[in-house]
Amino acid sequence: MIDRISLLTDLLPDNELTTSLLALLGSEKAKVEEYFSQVVDQTTFKTEDYLRLKDFLVNLVASLRTLVTTSRYLSDPRSLSNTDLDELFRSFGFPYSTKIRGIDENPLEQKIQLLYDLINLYKIKGTPESIVRILQYFGLEKFDLFELVLKLVNNDLFFESKFVGGTSTDPDTIRLPFEDLTKSDQHWLLTKDQILHLNNINKLNLPSQTPYIGVQTQSVIDGPEAAIFSRIIQDQYQTWKNGGTLEENAKITIINEKRSLLELYVATVYAINKKYNLTTTSDRFICYDGSNVSIVTIFDEFDQICYDGSNVSIVTIFDEFDQITNTAPIRRCDINDNEHILVDSTSLVTSSMLYCPDSRLVRYYDLFTRPMTENFLKTRESAGELLQQMNPSLKQAIDVMGNISEVIMSLRKDLSYWIQATIGLGFIDFSYVLFGLLDLFGEYR
Shortest CA distance to 418 belongs to which of 267, 239, 195? Predict the structure, then answer.
């Protein structure tokens, strides 16, 4: 750093001087000194008193020129100090920028980029895109934003989603019952009967735009989170099958008991199969399958697993997943399986250019999936049969309860709570990853 080159540096502490300000001070002082040496200085008058006066005047003029020059470049955030940037953030209604700072007054690059983002958001304020961008600041990377329109379907009222922004290319439509949104809204004044009556007597009738908006996260079931959880379930099943004892640390609200995670999971799958006709034709299922992995150790060390003989963080699995999926393939064979590609069906000629044994697809299949034949839930009836063996009273409780939708909601909340409390992967609701939010609204489509 350049120390005490002007009056500004004498007046301000070193930690309040930014790199850009110091560079500007040095430049302005050099210009003033050059002016004195070429225009003002005379050899005859170079006494000690004159040199002291000259030094004072050079610093004074350089400081004044620096202030003027700084004001001309205020449009460049990189020329501002950290404190000045905080004032700009407050003008945007964001008072938390003071938490984004380094050890001195030099603004962090992240802070400057955030300011640019806020400026760009100001240009599109009030639009769906601005809401999408803001929600992404809070960690919602992939989601859909929609408005709700009140419609009359089969003489019944529903709120239907209208996509207005987000990251989906072809989002599904969701219908929600009229009572679900209005029963707790003090500002909704009309009852269902009143709306139906007005719809019959008025020329301007339904559908009608409502003030309600919704946010729906996009759930991807082939991510590392689902693969880790699936492996835990598979390991617990093998432990139970081999006569081992499972820890009873999963609360099942509908029977008010603590049972094993495996029982909670199987009960959830069984309840969903009773409600929905979900099938698959895939020959593989999501399950982390790294070499010599014992994910059971997660229960003893919340953020540790045993992978290839050494304990590493769960973050390693996320890194493995990102290495395979987060960058665009640079080879054509990265999107093909581990087989020579048939080019000519008549001559049975294969192409080695389309083949690579280490393709990303092969690595993904090898590390994050297992053959469906290794899944203990092989058919639609498997969950019910297994639950009957493990906990017949729990199966009976599910069977006798009238509203199966409420049972599913309760079980999935218990499942999500176990994930948050035990593994702590930071999900808002892990059940969205397992089942998909749209499946829970399937009866309203």
Answer: 267
- Ranges of beta strands (E only) in 265-313 are 284-286, 304-307, 310-313
Please choose, from the candidates 285, 248, 250, 274, the residue with its C-alpha nearest in 3D space to the C-alpha of residue 377.
Answer: 285
pLDDT grade for 53, boundaries at 50, 70 and 90: confident
The first and second tokens of residue 211, run together, are 């003030």
* CA–CA dist 224, 221 (Å, integer): 9
Mean pLDDT value across residues 407-429: 72
Handedness of CA 335, 339, 345, 349 (dihedral sign): positive
User: Is the distance from CB of 224 to CB of 166 less than 8 angstroms?
Assistant: no
Element (H, E) at 343: strand 341-344
Average pLDDT on 18-36 reads: 78
Residue 236: partners with Cβ closer than 8 Å, 6 or more residues away: 246, 260, 261, 262, 296
Q: Smallest Cα–Cα separation from 82: which of 119, 112, 120, 122?
A: 112
Using the CB atoms, write b or e for 238-277: b if 16+ within 10 Å: ebbeeeeebeeebbbebeeeebbbbbbbbbbbbbbbeeee
**Cβ atoms of 393 and 387 closer than 8 Å:** no
From CA 226, how far away is CA 93, in angstroms rounded?
A: 38
User: How many CB atoms sit inside 10 A of residue 395's CB?
Assistant: 22
Long-range contacts (CB closer than 8 Å, 24 or more residues apart) made by 336-344 = 336/361, 337/361, 337/362, 337/365, 338/362
Residue 388 pLDDT grade (very low, low, confident, very high; cuts 50, 70, 90): very high
* Cα torsion angle, 215, 221, 224, 228, sign: positive
3-state class (DSSP) for residue 143: strand
pLDDT number for residue 341: 46
CA distance 98 to 113: 15
78 dihedral zone (left: phi>0; alpha: psi -120 to 50; beta): alpha
What is the C-alpha to C-alpha distance for residues 342 and 29, in angstroms, rounded to an integer?
74
DSSP string computed for 173-198: P-EEEHHHHHTT-TT----HHHHHHH
Question: Rounded to the nearest 10 degrees, how much is the dihedral formed by the CA atoms of 315, 319, 325, 327?
Answer: 130
